[in-house]
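batch job 7 of whatever, protein = histidine kinase
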Amino acid sequence: MPREPGLSVRLKLTLSYAGFLMLASTLLLAVVWAFLLRYVPDGPIDTRGPFVPNRSDLLRAFAPRAALMLVFLLVLGLLGGWLLAGRMLAPLTRITRATRKAATGSLSHRIWLDGRKDEFRELADAFDTMLGRLEAQVAEQQRFAANASHELRTPLAITQTLLEVARNDPGSDTSALVERLHFVNSRAIDLTEALLLLSRADQRSFGRGHVDLSLIAEEATETLLPLAEARGLTIETSGDLTPTVGSHALLLQMTTNLVHNAIVHNLPDGGSVWVTTSREPDAVVLIVENTGARLTEQQVATLTEPFQRGAQRVRTDHAGVGLGLAIVRSITEAHDGTLTLTPLADGGLRVAVRLAVAPPNDDG
């Protein structure tokens, strides 16, 4: 927003320091003058006695020196105030310089303001933290854009290849071609919808209401039960009422993604999935655990990145588009919750989502 030019903060502080010094000096001189007047008589003095100055003599002697002293204090106040203000505002100058660098896209710069903790140090530390988060988010968005472009290009390239094969061989069976095109197109649609859902969660553009995570967990489990049975897995759901505030549709999508991920990335046969909900004094917790391959801490740390699939996590007909846990993380953060992924010692993964409990007036 355009602004009219004005006085700098340093000049304002200088004038403030000098003004306060002049005011204090004037008051001090006034007190001295009033004190002297008590002991100096007014009117003519008897010349036959010892010399005693009257108030007129005192005024002629006091006023010039008081004026010189005020001028000296004014100069001292302006010069000293200017130097003192510059020293005090030096950290702010460094913060301003760092802000201008960040505005040009240089997010790797940090202030690293030293010294003991005060308002300027707190501001500098907060700014450094903000720059760190911005740098990480920008890097993540760049990786996301590159991965999304690659993922979207793959079905388009497959479709183009299939169409070229069909055009070069007009007599081939089109039923298999149509079936393959339908599968590729469905995956492209799923990927597009997942990207839109991820964007919606990141922007927090959704309504909030009272929801129960235990009911959502049951709904998601019932929806995915046929897929689990087809893969020879068992699902167990248990827990207490877990009231929270949020979007029912997004929390259902979050839970569905967690259960789907636990089913798809499981043992080839005889695996299990456990879905539990619990309530704490200030939070509600949804936990999804499954059997499966052993994962390291380093592998688990990357699973919430878009299009990341852990070790031995290959694409199948139900493997999704690689955004399942990324969507879970975005939905959790959009509800001001926390997401924790922990590899199990015997193989598999434990995912815990912690959200704020609904206020008492909304509970029930």
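notes: Residues 9-106 form one domain.
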